[in-house]
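@channel sequence for tomorrow's demo:
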Amino acid sequence: MSYADKVFVNMCKDILENGIDTKGEKVRPKWDDGSYAYTIKKFGVVNRYDLKKEFPAMTIRPLGFKNCIDEILWIWQKKSNNIADLNSHIWDSWADENGSIGKAYGYQLGVKHKYKEGEMDQVDRVLYDLKNNPYSRRIMTNLYVHQDLHEMNLYPCAYSMTFNVTTNKDTGKLVLNGILNQRSNDILTANNWNVAQYAVLIHMFAQVCDMEVGELVHVIADAHIYDKHVPIIEELIKRPQHEAPKFVMNPDIKDFYEFTVDDFKLENYETEPQVKNIPVAI
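structure tokens (generated this afternoon):
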């Protein structure tokens, strides 16, 4: 059975059984009807995924794989903050009349910074270090830039990646690992979506830097289930689980900026039905 399913189900059970209910507390998000969106939350959830063993896609509901890839390329490759460059509507609620989400996500990754090696943005700095200084302990990105928060339509949830390279003792090849830090994670709508996205990002970086993939560690400060999502979660975690799909990526791409959505697919992906009309708190 899919390891991602097991992680998700166990995490949801733990949140529902041992989490803290925020009902009645001062919270920011609201539902469409104007009522406050309360959650059941757990602090400091850490999940590990060995990308060598399988791709972490849930099977108890389908992963919107193409849109998932499209968004990670929008942020990390296009470094865009405009929904006109995105082929889905997941960011529409946070975009202004010009389609911008402000100085958030892709915008921050595209800002150039001065280093002794020259000017680079955060993505190019990661790629430079992976190729030239793979054992550096400083290979990381940060989207949570305090001076720009007031110009972001949504503060970054998945705000930091730390990359760390080890060695495969059997093959002698370098192994790329990553830690995804999230300040907040809506478990139903975004958890496996984010996990799959950053698993793909590690696969992409590993391929263009001639490395093997290793672990993705997902650190969530506030892992929560919204009140209106509880019945959906309770139904989901009772569903049958299937084998993880096979992840396929175009092996000919050696330049990160040449990847397209069509360079990825999931084979033998058997899932339970999709959950529709999930309410989203804004």
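heads up for whoever presents: The first strand starts at residue 20 and ends at 21.
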